[in-house]
């Protein structure tokens, strides 16, 4: 099955530890994360800076924009743009998961999240940097 993932979720999936905006959102993220971390199976992923498969289950999803707070839509779009630029990916293009994982491991260091994810409320927990660190250990070993 092809997945649609927004730019910044390409990073979130490596550190996700079951935290999220609602039980439904957590369930969908858990499913996506399971696919991303399953080394036995590759899959095509369309990368976007827009709503994605995870957003569909988010309680803050409005008709056309994220409604978590007044500035949340601009905020998540800016995260997406930074991550897509950093990984040299194009909005709307489809890539294989294996390619995205190798790019992420090669191009993203844990400390890069300080600017790539600036303003994200999950950053301070440290799990995302830890996830990227473990990904690099695994892929670049
Ligand atoms: S800090 Fe936020 S945007 Fe960055 S990887 Fe973690 S949850 Fe995703």
Short description:
With 141 residues, the protein is mainly alpha-helical.
Explain how this protein is built:
The protein is mainly alpha-helical. The protein has one domain. Helix content is 47%, strand content 9%. It has six helices and three strands; from the N terminus they run βααβαβααα. It has a three-stranded mixed sheet. The longest helix is centred in the first third of the chain and has 15 residues. The radius of gyration is 14 Å and the shape is globular. The termini are far apart.
Number of helices: 6
**Average pLDDT for all residues:** 97
Whole-number total of structural domains: 1
Helix content: 40-55%
Main sheet attributes: strand count, strand direction, barrel closure: 3 strands, mixed
User: Which H/E pattern describes the elements?
Assistant: EHHEHEHHH
How many strands in all?
3
Strand line-up across the major sheet: 1-2-3
N-end to C-end Cα span: 29 Å
How large is the share of residues in beta strands?
5-15%
Bound molecules: iron/sulfur cluster
Structural class: mainly alpha
Radius of gyration: 14 Å
Taking pLDDT < 50 over at least 5 consecutive residues as the criterion, the unreliable ranges are none
Form type: globular
């Amino acid at each position: 099955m092809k997945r649609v993932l927004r730019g910044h979720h390409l990073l979130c999936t490596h550190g996700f530890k079951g935290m999220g905006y609602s039980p439904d959102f957590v369930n969908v993220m858990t499913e996506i994360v399971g696919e991303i971390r399953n080394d036995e199976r590759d899959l095509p992923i369309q990368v976007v800076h827009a709503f994605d498969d995870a957003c569909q289950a988010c309680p803050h999803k409005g008709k056309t924009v994220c409604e978590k707070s007044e500035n949340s839509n601009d905020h998540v779009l800016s995260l997406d743009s930074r991550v897509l630029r950093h990984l040299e990916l194009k909005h709307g293009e489809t890539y294989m998961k294996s390619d995205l994982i190798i790019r992420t491991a090669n191009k993203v260091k844990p400390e890069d999240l300080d600017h790539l994810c600036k303003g994200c409320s999950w950053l301070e927990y440290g799990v995302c940097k830890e996830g990227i660190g473990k990904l690099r250990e695994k892929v670049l070993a």
